[in-house]
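User: Hi! I'm working on a homework problem where we have to compare a predicted structure to a textbook description. Could you give me the structure for the chain below?
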Amino acid sequence: MDIVVDDLSGPEIARFLEEHVRQMRSITPEGSKHALDLDGLRNADTTVWSITDGHTLVGCGAIKRLDPAHAELKSMRTRASRTRSGVASRLLEHIIAEAKGMGYARLSLETGSSAFFLPARRLYEKFGFRECEPFAAYRPDPNSTFMTREL
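Assistant: Happy to help. Predicted structure tokens:
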């Protein structure tokens, strides 16, 4: 598997992220959906990585700069046919290392609190993330779980 910074210009990543946003909208109440669409990820403060297996896109993830020492993990997604195959772990390990290399001291995230998101929360816990209070512009929300870890 290869992990590269993605410039978001390809049609495959565009479709992949559109699927992500569509799925999040279908399972998350409108005021609680925080997934960034393609335009939201095309920001100077955001870096997106894609992971491929051969020529197949199998996952993506991003970090968004909040301040010089703090970034937010965004848009973690694994192709449905590849869940529980190590894609997300490999990508998250890479993103954490990249965030450290960029000089961040803390990495935080928001994910859903429903049972659908339990595998994601367990993955983040495995990598040292712990629940925390809302950060940045987030507000308390029963549909959200906030997590953070020091780097």
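For your comparison, note the following. The mean pLDDT is 92. The domain at 2-150 is CATH 3.40.630.30 (Aminopeptidase). Good luck with the assignment!
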